[in-house]
Write a structure and sequence with these properties.
Helix content of chain A: under 10%
Shape of chain A: globular
Strand content of chain A: over 45%
Structural class of chain A: mainly beta
Radius of gyration of chain A: 14 Å
Number of strands of chain B: 9
Mean pLDDT of chain B: 93
Distance between the termini of chain A: 39 Å
Helix content of chain B: under 10%
Strand content of chain B: over 45%
Order of helices and strands of chain A: EEEEEEEEEEE
Number of strands of chain A: 11
Largest sheet of chain B: 6 strands, mixed
Distance between the termini of chain B: 36 Å
Oligomer: heterodimer
Structural class of chain B: mainly beta
Number of helices of chain B: 0
Largest interface: A-B, 24 and 27 residues
Order of helices and strands of chain B: EEEEEEEEE
Number of helices of chain A: 0
Largest sheet of chain A: 7 strands, mixed
Low-confidence stretches of chain A: none
């Protein structure tokens, strides 16, 4: 079954770190860019970051640049999001999403597969 | 920065047509995509890049553009269409991705 499953969320204090994972199934993971998109409680969707299909390029939203780092292990079909210096405003459900463009990095293609997300709560 | 504005809510009776607008300064020249999100579920792409639909999405979902506004149209609305809907574009000036503010569709 083609799917994305996130894990690693939890409750963490401000200033601490957390690492999220996203495992992909039943598609050629190594040939697609991957995104993280978050949704604060009761709020809309916010794009967080993109990593290229081979992991050689990354791009971040201004709100997380310098604090969050994307990586991927194509041998394990797994995407990671390392979140450092967490803030209360980072509290959200974090979804991973597959880019619709084969073998590309960035561009106007849609997010054509999403995971259900994992909840990160930053609170003292 | 690129801002996409949607109405917070749209209400529609079963069998009628729902129209959800998405306004943005450069939207006329950009590819616009639409997502449906039901409570506690992953978003699902329903329409991409003007009239294309993923497999499994009914023909009742379509989109159009005029000037600086894109519109998602849901024809013959069913109870199962009740959800939040988001438009999305790629901002070529920053290479970032932008989502609309979201619209809650209520089926009366």
């Amino acid at each position: 079954q083609v799917q994305l499953v996130e894990s690693g969320g939890g409750v963490v204090q401000p200033g601490r770190s957390l690492r999220l994972s996203c495992v992909a199934s039943d598609f050629n993971f190594r040939t697609y860019g991957m995104h993280w998109v978050r949704q604060a409680p009761g709020k809309g969707l916010e794009w967080v970051a993109l990593i290229s299909y081979d992991g050689s390029n990354e791009m971040y939203a201004d709100s997380v640049r310098g604090r969050f780092t994307l990586s991927r292990d194509n041998s394990k079909n797994t995407l990671y999001l390392q979140m450092n210096s967490l803030r209360v405003e980072d509290t959200a459900v974090y979804h991973c999403a597959k880019d619709g463009a084969y073998g590309a990095y960035g561009g106007p293609m849609p997010f054509d597969l999403w995971g259900r997300g994992t909840l990160v709560t930053v609170s003292s | 920065s690129y801002v996409l504005t949607q109405p917070p809510s749209v209400s529609v009776a079963p069998g009628q047509t729902a129209r959800i607008t998405c306004g943005g300064n450069n939207i006329g020249s950009d590819s616009v995509h639409w997502y449906q999100q039901k409570p506690g579920q992953a978003p699902v792409m329903v329409v991409y890049d003007l009239t294309d639909r993923p497999s499994g999405i009914p023909e009742r979902f379509s989109d159009s553009k005029s000037g600086n506004t894109a519109t998602l149209t849901i024809s013959r609305v069913e109870a199962g269409d009740e959800a939040d809907y988001y438009c999305q574009v790629w901002d070529s000036s920053t290479a970032h991705y932008v989502f609309g503010t979201g619209t809650k569709v209520t089926v009366l």
